[in-house]
Amino acid sequence: MSQPTGVIHDIGYRHYDGPRLGRGAGAVALFVYSLRGTFGLGRTFKSKIMPFLLFGAMMLPAVVSIAIMALLKQAPMSYTDYAVFMQPVIAIFLAAQSPVLVAPDLRHRVIPLYLSRPVTIVDYIGAKFAAMIAALLILMVVPLTVQFVGELLIDLPMPLHTHEYLAALGGSLLNAVLLASIGLALASFTPRRGLGVASVIAFYMFTLAASAVLTGVLESEGHRDASSWSILLNPFFLVNAVQTNLFGTQPVEGLPFPSEAGPALILLAVVALALAGLYARYRKALAA
């Protein structure tokens, strides 16, 4: 009698006969999935609480500004300074949602599964990066646009702040690119979501404190030129300086930002360094 060699069980897997959409479609699908994840869409109700609470907090000044315009006929809140004034809310959103995009795949070690298809590591990182940028843009641009629409509908005894609104949109894009690169890079160095949140918050608190203390010390010693550079340690002030130089708007609170191309070069260098660190982290994860 022959010995049994094994049994094949039908467990329900079916062959896929549909169209092969390729690398681009895979990257787009990953982008959409990641963007939905930043706002908890398609997940439990608990996952939606934090992002939507923070979005509501970002909307509150715009709603109050519209009410003031309607009742007191006063100018709206500064468009170009909106992100600086609301930086704690934006920083908390970045800290809470950056690990959502990177930690689960690193913790469960599923990166090779993504890359077993036409999607490459550059596509994967690009999709995550673009999703975080889009989420931050939604967080920042929607309140600005609501406030501008309110200004359009209310008859104010002053010209429309169209230039400031458009400059603020450009600043929002710069903020989104810079913050997304930093947030994802920091969050990717640990597969634990809680540690990722802590690392992004710690970075923000450190740059906020270092910028304020160092600028105060340098100004008290009479080194005003040096203090104008030290304040750029805060990412939000760095973007505000670039925005001021690019679009000719007023700096936040009249701060003496450098007028050269230096702030823009610093911003580009930080983004490049953060993305290089993110790429290196995923290369290490693949090799592990």
From TrEMBL:
The chain crosses the membrane at residues 20-39, 51-72, 84-103, 124-145, 165-187, 194-218, 261-280. It comes from the Bacteria. Coiled coil: none annotated. The keyword tRNA processing does not apply. Keywords: Membrane, Transmembrane, Transmembrane helix. This is ABC transporter permease. It comes from Herbidospora solisilvae.
